[in-house]
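Here is one chain, start to finish.
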Amino acid sequence: MIKNTFNNLKPDKKKMILEKSIQVLCNTSATSIKVSDIINATGISRGSFYQYFDTPVDIFLAIIEELQTENIEIMKQIIKEEKGDFFSTFKRMFEFQYVNLLKKENEHIMLMLKKSNELIIKNQIFKVNDTYCSKKFMHKFDLEKLNINTYFEFNKLYILVTDIMGHNILNGIMQNLTLEKALEDYLIQLDFIKYGVIKREENHEEKSFKQ
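Its structure:
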């Protein structure tokens, strides 16, 4: 568990701990990292470590949480620019996250994700904030363009699309795919959701979103 004492640290110290820990996680997976690895890299004491975290894996979760927080702010901006179009927003979010990971300054993050890929998939780590985010963003999307009627349905759609996005980003990183190839694979899967795979009658009853 990530403790409040860590979240309440001064931004500079928190940033230092995360950045130094990322460097450690480039060489060892989150499941293999030891407390001694973290304290040697960051200079914090063993006592301080346990004031901030329960286990070494928590430092990895803290890094992922920080990345997700940054993505939330970017997504707000993209939704606005795309005028609430759900699928256009997720296409651009994929492009942003993938390109961002390929940047030279983020190579340590990419190496870290590669090292801990198995843990990410097994524990569905990128899903931690999905329900929170779906509530936060629901009313920013143009819901009349979606064939959904309730928040429950929207939440399921949001989680499904973000899950596919996370899977394709990780898969692209592991296979060293270009943005174009990774995006192509992602859009094929998005189109299955967007258009469906079962032929339907042309005339179908119009539905409107219900709160």
